[in-house]
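2024-03-11 09:14:02 INFO queue: dequeued item Thiol-disulfide isomerase/thioredoxin, len=663
2024-03-11 09:14:02 INFO validating residues
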Amino acid sequence: MLKIKKSLMAISCLLATDAFAQSKNFEYNPVHPLPGSSIQITYDTKGTPLSGQKSVHGIVYAYSNYNWHTTDLNLTPTGEGKFKATLPLDKDFGLAAIKFLGGDSTDNNNDNAYVIMATDAKRAGINAPSAYAGWSFLRADKQGYGVPGYFKKPVNLSDTAFYYWLNNEIMWHSAEAGEVLAVPFARSIQAFQGDAGMPRIKNIVKFLQQKDSEVNLLRARSILAGVLKDKFRTDSLDSVMIKRFPNGELAKVNAYKAYNLERDAEKKRALGEAFLKKFPQNKAYNDFDKEFRINYSNIYQTIIIIASMKKDYTPLNQYLNELDFPAFVNLHYKLIEIWHNRKDIPDAELLPYANKMFTRMEQTKDVVPADYWYLSPMQWKAQYEQFLAKSILPVQVSILRNTGNYQQALAYAERAQKFYHYKRASLNDDHAFLLNRARQYAKLHTLLERSVYENQSSPEMLALLNADYKRSGKPLNQYNAYLTSLKNPELAARSSEEAKKIMRNADMPDWTMTDLNGKEVRFADLKGKTIVMDFWATWCVPCKASFPGMKLAVDHYKADPNVVFYFIDTEERGDKYKQEVAKFIKDNNYPFNILFDNKAKGATVNDEVFARVCKAFTISGIPMKLIIDSKGKLRFLTDGYKGSPTALADEIIEMVELTKKSE
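2024-03-11 09:14:37 INFO prediction written
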């Protein structure tokens, strides 16, 4: 009976393999390839989403030795929409799923997958080790084993099918798969058979315990705790493992818990360093680290950050190469970007560490990080450039510019623009400065015009645009018309419609505050004027970043006595903030009317007016901008800053004009 069952399974699997090979768009030879051999692939775009594409690229998701590996497949055109390629199979190859890309389209056989299974070298009619498991895992999104992004819609393989294919793998290749797949196989039995499968699952636990290695005992523990939910046996096994492996995974779990619970920074650093010394990272245990939520990169970056607070960068040199990619990006933000934006540490002091981190980041572009295993090398390089441009390059450009490293800054700015396409004002500003300094006026002209079109410019860029226009020799009296012609009318129309949607008509709380000279300014005395109020603080980075845009808006209405701007300094601590505000405004030459929020009795910050505004309109956070009509009614309230001075100025002007029209 067992022989019949095995024969039926073998025939079924063989038929499945043949079905994969037969497709009008996708063929490979030999049809039953052996691990370690090469196969010839033919792909026909006719009738696929890639029909008509002149260039097609393939991504191969290979399951070998019970692990996924992602590679690129270079295809050569053979005419009439057909392409060919040679795919070498490694010695442990079991299965490959292929996806074809062309332009912005992809083809994965309409979510049915283009799949190749290898044949067992010793047994005809049986697929090679890893093949059955790979076919199961490829479609097992529900179970958490799938390939991210391969299918357009998540494939939720049934519990029956998931068990069936894993059972085939265990039955035909128990020597190779028995230990490695023990945990997912136990889960598949539980999902498929329920209580009826418990004896088999217990036998798997017994089998693992007999193997008597820490890895297999951990696998047994995963089944006891996660599948059988047997706390008594889990605790018993824990006791055994702690005694047998005093510096093993469970001891590591307890040490990590102690590290996580520590709140004192210096003590946490000491615990983290002791943890790393006693339990150095072993990537062979990555799966168990994930199960127990042990994050080595978290420890590395925490130690680095704590040390950097005292300007001790020894841990940065020690652990920088150990960080995984996501942690690296996060560390750069905390260690470099925040301090650069706040200007609390001079860029000249940040530069050597910014350079060190940038150099290390560049070293990762040719090695796909473990967290991104589902990307091919080609895909990773493209993804890497996006990560670099989005998270690192603009900051690096700014630091290099501010420290006089102009040539390098210009090269990085042009690299970043390949991602941003002039849609980031701060990068445009740095780029424009660098091009102007290098006297690359043709490139500068393009940058300035494109930046205005995207509404991502700065006051300095507008000055450069004016100078660029004068160089052209065109009539000066036509400059304003030229500037208007550069703007994207769709952006202006969209901004106007968005402003209309958030317009309101609400009573504004009364207030009285004092200005820089100690003079009282009363809300009641401003009736008849359109008022723009901007709540900010000296410690608020986006508040101060928005001031160039607010200056453009102030300058726009400087000849209109019926539109007034007030910049209300709020939520400050200490007793020297008024002097700090006065110095900041003077140093930056801002023509702003400054008011100081009141400090309520017993309060530690001056937020009396701001608190009442927040309560009245159920909002909080600065920067906060209010537009009030001539009758004292609040018509607009916005918070935050999106990063573009010209876009902010246009937004304020649009809201002021809508306010005036509504009266």
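2024-03-11 09:14:37 INFO annotate: Residues 406 and 437 are 8 Å apart (CA to CA).
2024-03-11 09:14:38 INFO item closed
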